[in-house]
Amino acid sequence: MAANFFRTVQGYLRIRVTGYAVERFLNACGYRGILLWGITPLEDACEMNIRIADFRKLKPVMKKTGTRVVILNRIGLPFFFYRYRHRKSFFFGAAACAVLIFLLSGLIWDIDIRGNLTYTDETILEFLASKDIQNGMLKTQIDCERIAKDIRKEYADVIWVSASVQGAKLKIQVKENTDASGMETDLEVKKEEKVPMDLVADRDCVITEIVPRTGMIQVRPGDTVKEGEVLISGLIPVQDDAKEIIGYQYQKADADIRGKAILPYEDVLENTYSRKEYFYEERPHQMRRRQAYYLRVGRFQLAFGNLQKKEENQELHTSEYQICLGKRLKLPIYLGTRTVIPYTAHPETYEKKEIQERLSADFKRYLRELEKKGVEIIENNVKIYTGSKTSAARGELTVLLPVGTLKASQIPEISELPK
Amino acid sequence: MKSKKQTTKTAFGDHPIREKVAEISELPRDAVLGMPLLTVLGQSEFTLENYTGIIEYTDALLRIQVKGGQIKVTGKRFQVVYYANDEMKVKGCIHSIEYLSSEAR
């Protein structure tokens, strides 16, 4: 296989040798170190392959053995180049292709991250991008040790990192410490301890229940609080023997607080609507539509097909596909389809029963969403009001809901400290 | 002038002194004695080293001159894959391989 390739690169000839003693010709060639291959015997001749350089040595052999040599075929690159010597642009293209492959293979085309469980690929890629490690950069600029160090430094629970360049791919393998998940939170807490955080009310409500974990309680069950009021303080006062506050311990306030609040609800529905009637083709039985394709490169767009407006009403659907090299290298090239579906609009009015059904369905969906957030509904005063033009579900919900959102504490000045 | 002893050593490997030398020195006999080295792969291919030349070559018969005799191979569809000064390889369907010593001829 390899020998054949090199012979093709060097070029060779298929020759036919005729004469009284072809065997003598073969022996003479062997004696002179001329390599022959693919020797096929014919009735009174022999066909074989010979290298170009060896062919030039054949004259004395032919003379001595009384044979004649005819060239049947010229095979290989030298003949190929000679035949197409006038096609300069072809050779230029081939050379440009080789140069481009050489240059582009010096870049990183893909970053492959493996072994990450808690951190997503996107998170790590973002971090790498902040360190100027991204697709399209020069391979020579990559310092694998530096990358490994940076990742270990940034992510405390990553216990092992390996970065290597394989071809045009930067391969990053990480191992996370899955056993000691508490360690990470401790570290995070230590980091955040420096900034005290309060738990403040995110809406007006009456506090019903408090289960504190960290911080100083500022309210009691039964208290009415306004939005923004501190419920649990992240500043824990440090007192001396005389019960005077000499400083504060900074904490991130943490507690489960529930409060009773009133949520207003309103959902308005127009009594009239526009019913769409699509056109159907008879055969094959499908919706009438017109499609056009386009190619978008950056801001420039090349459309194939015409989608001029023929009907008064029509829907326009567009779907776009971004071309990617490998898994992550997204090129600014998009292939897209635009579909126009014409329709006729018919004004219609909802019946009373239909209005009720629609508004009830919307309200039930809203309640389900609330329940997912841990909200408990105590009282429901929502009613449906039907008007001539619009109908509405309106009212109030009394609920028990989790209260509290984190906010940085206001640290009092030393002078403000009570004496 | 050739001695009597020398004129009688015509068959393959019939060269007692050289054979002894080869045996004592533990050198490969094909290299020391110039004996032909034939490697046959099944019935379809053979490689031959240490030959002098081809005497006859058709697609059904191949007679090769070697030191101290000839090797005659019969079969069909013979094709010499390569032919160099020291080695040749032949493909085809081999029916028989015969060793013809100079004496027998």
TrEMBL record, chain A:
The chain crosses the membrane at residues 90-109. The keyword Transmembrane helix applies. Keywords: Membrane, Transmembrane, Transmembrane helix. It comes from the Bacteria. InterPro entries: YqfD. This is Sporulation protein YqfD. The keyword Transmembrane applies.
TrEMBL record, chain B:
It comes from the Bacteria. Pfam families: YabP. This is Sporulation protein YqfC. The lineage of its organism: Bacteria, Bacillati, Bacillota, Clostridia, Lachnospirales.
